């Protein structure tokens, strides 16, 4: 701050005027602006942006809470966020938390400490009540359906999308359907489990508990999944897999074992990943890039909005993409 | 700052003392520290971290210049960076630049403006001379071999790694070898082109210009590559492909077309991606996660080091992983 004072003294203006010039504030006379700019040029002064942030109360930074970057689902949302941030000239502070609540809380504390202007939560292990406490300090947007919460959300309806996939399989004549997901206790996967059980109860199709398989996060798990299905006495005719990369690995392993897709096993994936397209995988496109872009647009509007801190809930459409694996 | 002044007034201490307490500075008497802490508790004052940054001159943030997140190569480096940043309690400011030099310069300006403590450049379109100008303002680490430059680097030797792959193919008896890469004019791909030409000149094997294929960045390009090779009058017996996801797509398309790997076409990839492992793709593991981790460790040492700003150049080892595609 000493530097700003010095510039003010040499320019013969107030400190307030200097900070207005630094921030392109309109209410500064041309004479004063020129005096300040000349002094700055003489002193070759570079502004310390921390002083600017302190004065403006804005950092033009948004933090992103994300468990793991290398998961396709997360990396594509991140790319959508990053594209919009670049357009808006905002910076993203990436907080890879591995679902550790203490790390996620630290990011929310950054909002309280005014280090960032808002937080986008791509996926979290925190309860909504905990997140709500921080809405007093600035806007928060999640990429999960947060219902009636006091923070905003941009989401697809996992329940409807998942039931759509199940109904599609039933309409194609499959009577026994399995299901594979990542974390068993995640908020999206809990919703998918409900959809799976509700669908079976309402359709009257048989539900085998062993056909619900969890902890399938990567390609190795996808290959192991095929072997697990093969070893079952009674295996499902079709399977719906949350994550095209897992479904793709299952398909590749099936090819090695002489199991035909879809004749011996029909497969629907999630995410519309490039590898799935190559393999002819039917999938549910949950518009990840669009979700990231919409999440940034929403937080940006909330930061700049003068309509107070009313939460916004934006539902995005999913799309079933038919290929040859069903 | 008004808040800090107020706390100082109520506590009966100087502003300096308040800021020392906020920053856990040792030279504060217990009496004064307690007085300040009591006042803060009474006022429920949360420190504005921008004030703390201004006072300490540290932001505990490092910016990362990265063209695109969704490319496997970049996302794994990012994950290595993020893991180490989490351990060191640093934040990463992600700057997805799409190789736009004006955006890359803005990130370097953040270093000059003291908004961040250092910059990691994963890949850039800026010339080394331009980057060197910014070393006066703080540490910079690149993930490319920067030779004798004034900024640091953590890298694998793409030239040696690529020649190793070519020699491996020659040793297996392949006499005609093709090459596929992403950007033609990138710094790493320029090095690989040199390696490809030098290898052919020194080994005496025939080099066909049409066997050097560029702009293969994604899975679709990989599938198209197979068709391009199939359409050649004289096609190579083997191909080395920068990017396992492109090589994997080529292999999957070959399977559809009845082209046998390696009997009709041998393939070596780069990056050791999970999809390549599933397909039995022989690859050169360029240790991307380790590179990201080492890049963060290096910038962290440079931020906290008292040995001045001497650049460090760390070479990491690559590894040829033999599977069944050669």
TrEMBL record, chains A, B:
Residues 2-56 form the HTH lacI-type domain. It comes from the Bacteria. InterPro entries: HTH_LacI, LacI/GalR-like_sensor, Lambda_DNA-bd_dom_sf, Peripla_BP_I. CDD domains: HTH_LacI, PBP1_CcpB-like. SUPFAM superfamilies: lambda repressor-like DNA-binding domains, Periplasmic binding protein-like I. It holds the Pfam family LacI. GO terms for molecular function: DNA-binding transcription factor activity; transcription cis-regulatory region binding. SMART domains: HTH_LACI. Keywords: DNA-binding, Transcription, Transcription regulation. Signal peptide: none annotated. PROSITE patterns: HTH_LACI_1, HTH_LACI_2. This is LacI family DNA-binding transcriptional regulator. It comes from Paenibacillus agri.
């Amino acid at each position: 701050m000493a530097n700003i004072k010095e510039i003010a003294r040499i320019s013969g203006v107030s400190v307030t005027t200097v900070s207005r010039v630094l921030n392109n504030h309109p209410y500064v006379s041309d004479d004063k602006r020129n005096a300040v700019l000349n002094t700055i040029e003489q002193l070759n002064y570079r502004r310390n942006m921390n002083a600017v942030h302190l004065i403006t109360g804005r950092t033009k930074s948004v933090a992103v809470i994300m468990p793991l970057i290398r998961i396709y689902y997360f990396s594509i949302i991140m790319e959508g966020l990053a594209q919009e941030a670049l357009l808006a000239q905002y910076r993203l502070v990436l907080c890879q938390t591995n679902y550790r609540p203490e790390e996620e809380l630290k990011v929310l504390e950054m909002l309280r400490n005014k280090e960032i202007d808002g937080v986008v939560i791509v996926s979290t292990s925190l309860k909504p009540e905990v997140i709500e406490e921080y809405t007093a300090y600035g806007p928060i947007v999640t990429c999960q359906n947060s219902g009636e919460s006091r923070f905003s959300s941009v989401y697809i309806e996992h329940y409807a999308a998942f039931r759509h996939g199940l109904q599609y399989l039933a309409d194609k004549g499959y009577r026994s359907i399995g299901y594979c997901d990542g974390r068993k206790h995640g908020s999206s996967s809990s919703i998918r489990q409900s959809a799976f059980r509700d669908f079976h109860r309402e359709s009257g199709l048989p539900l085998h508990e062993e056909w619900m398989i969890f902890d399938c996060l990567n390609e190795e798990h996808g290959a192991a999944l095929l072997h697990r299905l093969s070893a079952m006495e009674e295996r499902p005719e079709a399977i719906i897999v949350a994550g095209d990369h897992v479904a793709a690995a299952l398909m590749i392993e099936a090819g090695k074992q002489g199991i035909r897709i879809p004749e011996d096993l029909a497969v629907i994936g999630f995410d519309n990943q490039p590898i799935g397209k190559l393999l002819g995988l039917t999938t549910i496109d949950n518009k990840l890039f669009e979700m990231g872009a919409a999440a940034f647009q929403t937080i940006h509007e909330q930061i700049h909005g003068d309509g107070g801190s009313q939460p916004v809930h934006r539902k995005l459409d999913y799309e079933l993409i038919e290929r040859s694996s069903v």
